[in-house]
Amino acid sequence: MVKIVRKKVLNPSVTLLEVEAPMIAKKAQAGQFIILRLDEEGERIPLTIGDFDREKGTITIMFQKVGLTTELLGDLNEGDYIHDFVGPLGVPTRNELGEVKRVMVIGGGVGCAIAYPQAKHLHAEGVQVDVIVGFRSKDIVILEDEFKQACDNFYLMTDDGTYGEKGFVTVKLQQLLEAGEKYDAVIAIGPVPMMKFVSATTKPYNLRTLVSLNPIMIDGTGMCGCCRVTVGGKMKFACVDGPDFDGHQVDYDELMNRNSVYREREAKEKERHACRMEQLAKEMIH
Amino acid sequence: MPNMSMTKNPMPEQDPNVRNHNFKEVAMGYTPEMAMDEAKRCLGCKNMPCVKGCPVNIRIPEFIAKVAEGDFAGAYEVITATNALPSISGRVCPQETQCECHCVRGIKGEPVAIGRLERFVADWYRENVNAMPKKPESNGIKVAVVGSGPASLTCASDLAKKGYEVSIFEAFHTAGGVLVYGIPEFRLPKAIVQNEVDKLAALGADVETNVVVGRTYTIDDMFEDGYKAVFVGSGAGLPMFMGIPGEALAGVYSANEYLTRINLMKAYREGYDTPIKDSKKVAVVGGGNVAMDAARCAKRMGAEVYVVYRRDEEAMPARREEIHHAKEEGIQFLFLNNPVQILDDGHGKVRAMECVKMELGEPDASGRRRPQEVPGSNFELEVDTVIMSLGTSPNPLIRSTTPGLEANQRGCLIADEETMATTREGVYAGGDAVTGAATVILAMGAGKKAAAAMDQYLQEKYGK
To answer: Where do the 4Fe-4S ferredoxin-type domain residues begin and end (chain B) (predicted)?
Structure first.
């Protein structure tokens, strides 16, 4: 069991939790993830490690409420406990990245929660970091100030133009590349279509692009193959071989298809949560 | 008066057409009367051939004699003197190739039902006595055990009994390894596994779940933290796939994933959050015990189930009893068939599996006749789910993060056959991590050997 020591609502659907997990905090590196389970009946879900504090012995996770488990997780408060919390899992991004002097970090939506620690740790190492973040609209922007502290150049995009510049992250990326900006690598983290288009944008420039994949997982230790993805025509298990892969080699359409397997069931589960909440509200009125 | 019946006392079982709709245990166990009657079939041979077949050397005629007298508590004492997990081994051991194949009564007629008697004794004890063992006096020496499957539980139990301070590190949220995520409830109720883990905790062993050795904590960390020896019983959990087109389609599972969702995450039960696909027609590819488990689970989830196996029935590595049970439950076997590709329904889901018929050719290196394709015999098997049960290999995580720990070409840790010592001092290994996927009882035997060798090593080095 791990205790929640801090909770911060970043936007209407994204929540930050900092939990006490000293063993994990001691080993964690940017790009790795944890798996958690809320209670005896709960499912195991993977979440990327947003930040860690080795001295305090804490791990920060940021997540979007998209289904039953994340809804329930979002309902927890400081002082509450998470039943199971295991990690750090996966290969640290730094191991995949190798020697770099200048990097572009791109975050899309809730993916910014994972892109942020990447920018922060690379910047702290002395790597030159540029950041492009993209959101649907102004009301869901997160971590703007944090990003500004963690990079040399910061570009904020909204799909509807309500804040920053209008357009997708790829619009800005294309502009910068056309203007002759040079990077050793691009790290893209966000929805699968966004990572797919970022990779398509960098491909003509032969610019190394790492993407952080988010397939369905159960154990996260390589024993089931649920998270298998095709990279460069080969089967890889994202939980042990990744989650970071060469963006130019990933079969994105297959990943999107595999991620949709339980969509109907997930919708039903979310309904179940709504019912649970309704029931709770009724009980509180009476 | 010995019982000279040529056949074993049958074990009461749930009716096949009832049990294939529930996850309750298939075999219901002997009553005390049936057990005492069966025990009287044992001749109490002086040279005890049965014991030689038992990897953990249970003193079989001795415990059976106690059962015949009705002294079940006494029988339990005899069994547990050498076997830490009788309620498990009595259920899942392939006795027909171990103790029972050496039984003198098996020369004419059926051997004594040693496994059923062992199971009876362990169940009787749990239901009637269930005394938790006492923690022995500590010798102050810390040892670590990686994994909590049958090899690790046996090793930890033997070391704890000798007074070592044992810590078990398990990656999953529940201890038991394949006993909880792999073998289904209808063959091995999870409450029984938990009872064995509770007994181990009562002996003083500390069970730490949610620790992935190699990531959360390494073997080097353990030595730094004062552990004097380590046993690696991390198993062989890495699933194999065929490498045929369509394996990434929605609806294709490894048996490990399918069974983990069902057994560990309880996806079959109302109220549990882990989803599993609603399947109408399922093909399970493979012929081992894991394939039988996956097929029987899928049947219980309401599907029509085919087992697709490239050799003939004779060559199936699964236990005869499991194949028999599966057939009784309505599972259809397609022998001498091999998948060629899995076909898309146009929406990324499984529509069918294309198979080709096989025929047996010349014997191969394993002595079995090599199956070869019959050209032009391809056909489509309409299914919406495919479960690949082709075997597993050891996970590379521990060996890749432990300097000095060597593995062979198949990724199995190299360990001395007698002592289970690895290539690194103070580190021992056993079970599937060393042999590749094998049986529960062989893992238990390896855990037992390792515990004895670790005790000797630690006493020479740190003993008073």
So the answer is: 32-63
DSSP state string for B435-452? HSS--HHHHHHHHHHHHH
Nearest to B273 among A41, A84, A260 (CB): A41
**Which residue from A183, A175, A261 is spatially nearest to A216, judged by alpha carbons?**
A261
Contact A223 B216 (CB under 8 A): no
CA separation, residue B345 to residues B235, B338, B378 (Å): 37, 21, 19
User: Containing H/E element for A265?
Assistant: helix A263-285
Give the relative orientation of helices B114-128 and B72-82 as an angle to the nearest 10 degrees. Answer: 110
> Treating both helix axes as pointing N-terminal to C-terminal, what angle do B440-462 and B150-161 enclose, rounded to 10 degrees?
40
Q: Is A239 annotated as a binding residue?
A: yes
Residues 216-235 of B with CB under 8 A from A: 216-217
The secondary structure of B176-242 as a DSSP string is -THHHHTS-TTTS-HHHHHHHHHHHHHTT-EEE-S--BTTTB-HHHHHHTT--EEEE-----EE---
Nearest to B157 by CA among B139, B172, B143, B170: B143
| Strand-pair partners of A108 | A134
Q: Which residue has the higher pLDDT, B123 or A267?
A: B123
Among candidates B212, B215, B250 on the partner chain, residue whose Cβ is nearest the Cβ of A261: B250
pLDDT at A270: 61
**Amino acid type, B199:** K
pLDDT, tens digit (0-9, with 9 covering 90-100), for A77-91? 999 999 999 999 999
Return d(Cα B345, Cα B70) in angstroms, integer: 61
ipTM of the complex: 0.92
pTM higher than 0.80 = yes
B52: left (phi over 0), alpha (psi -120 to 50) or beta: alpha
Is there a contact between B216 and A254 if contact means CB atoms under 8 Å apart?
Answer: no
DSSP code at position A109: G
Does A151 appear as a known binding residue? no
CA A101 – CA A99 distance, rounded (Å): 7
**B248 CB within 8 Å of a chain A CB:** yes
Interface test with B, best of A20, A71, A86 (most B CBs within 10 A): A86
- Phi-psi category of residue B176: left, alpha or beta, with phi > 0 → left and psi -120 to 50 → alpha: left
**Is A85 in Cβ contact with B275 (below 8 Å)?**
no
Distance from CA of B280 to the nearest CA of A (A): 15
Q: How is residue B265 written in tokens?
A: 């995450």
DSSP code of residue A239: H
Q: Where are the beta strands (DSSP E) in chain A?
A: 2-11, 14-20, 33-37, 45-53, 58-64, 81-82, 84-89, 102-108, 128-135, 153-158, 165-166, 185-189, 209-212, 228-231, 234-237, 244-246
Show which of residues 154-173 on chain B sit within 8 Å of chain A, judged by CB atoms. 171-173
pLDDT (average), residues A138-150 = 94
Is B400 an 8 Å CB contact of chain A? no
Task: Write out the two tokens for A82.
Answer: 């998470």
Contact B256 A224 (CB under 8 A): yes
Q: Indicate the residue of A224, A229, A251 with minimum beta-carbon distance to B260.
A: A224
Contact (CB<8Å) A42/B243: no
Is residue B264 pLDDT above 60, yes or no? yes
What SS3 state is found at B294? helix
Shortest distance, CA B300 to any CA of chain A (angstroms): 19
